[in-house]
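Cont'd.
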Amino acid sequence: MRVKILLAILCTACLFMTGCGSDSNSDNKDPDSQATIIKLGMITHLNASEKQMEEYLFKVQERSHAKVINHVPVFFDNLNLMQLGIESGKVDVISTYKSVAEYLIANNNKYELVHDDWIKGLADNFCFAVHEDDDALKTDLNKVIKDMEADGSLDKLVKDYIKNVDNGQAPPKVDIPKFDGADKIVVGVTGDLPPLDLILPDNSPAGFNTALLAEIAKRLNRNVEVVQIDSGARAAALVADQIDVIFWAIVPAGDFLDKNIDKPDGIALSEPYFQDEIAHIKLKN
Amino acid sequence: MDFTDLLYKIFLKDGGWLTILNGLWVTVQISALSLLLGTVFGSLLCFFRLGKIKPLKVAAQVYISIIRGSPVLMLLMLLFYGVFARQGLSPIVVAVITFSMHTAAHVAELLRSALMALDKGQVEAARTLGFSKWQAFKLVTFPQLVRIAKPVYQSTVVNLIQWTSVVGYVTITDLTRVINNIASRTMQPMITIIGGMIIYLALSYLVYGIFHWTDRRRTQ
């Protein structure tokens, strides 16, 4: 008798697991769009679920009059994990920035760019995030960004550390100036988004963001200490006052998506200092 | 680029191997200090847990259940970004405190289970023969306790080394962090992670080797 009951429970469990329910991705979509499903690896957004991002991607495709293909976002903590995701078949395409995609393809010939028209024009702004009470630091950073835009030094950094970097090579080493007795700004970097942010073989931080920090140190006459931190702990470190500044990306196009889609509570964002296009990459056939 | 060139680029080029060694040294330092402090604190906890003073016994029980039931990463972040956020302690000190606390809870339980496995009659016999409490512990209980607890303790040491791989969350550049940095820079995560795993495996087998060596010395 007990064996029969156990078998009945097992059969019921199997029925549930094999899927009596509806597919969560199939509601309110054009039937044509269901024909192809592309699993898209993305960096985790703090204030949006994968489902919300799926709807956002759907609307962007509709707006661009492209053939709507159902992109199902899968969130990852960093680019490394996205690469592992695509190499293991968990996702079909990964979403990153143009500069990062070019660096990746130059260093790993298994990848190629996806030429989708509908992502043209999509871009993220990069800015600094500071503690929301730290108005003075935010003002200082905004002033430096404005000054650097005005005198062309920001564009020069973009050329030197992103555009003119030899195909896939690490950007030049950066020396951050030191000032005796000056105040210190502690900046958290992840080192996982080359050529914007990476760690050289000698363990020193490098890339466009670090070059920008060196310029900020010079202009503010303050010491900048760069510490490396896991991307998942950046916001916690900032809110807990363990660090003063982190790098952040925000979404500029606000038609369908909240601009604070990736902004945690308790932090304030500076003016953007760089914009990069969204690029999709996939494994070569 | 052939495979040898790729390995050279990932692990050796521009002194990258030195950075890996530095990361490994950080991992070893945190693990060794946490093991030492965790073992001392764990022994004390076990003493309280098995003792007759009720408040200490309850406190030890509560501590062990909370710490053993909590993920070590949560504990690390809670201490670094919460409890010690304003104390100015270095991240390595907070990491050693966290892993010592975690190890202590596990050591306390493994010592308790080893003590419970001992034959109490032997201690009673020793006491009857005129051994003091200390002599009975040192000459009868302790050697057997070590023998019974050793295999589980060895696993705890290896687990501890692996637990430390989350210290990147509190701004420490350990072996895992260095491996992740290399993977990001070279855009070759799979090969780099396999390389990192081999280093962790070598470290674990070094621990097994040391325990095996002490076993052989004892039996000779």
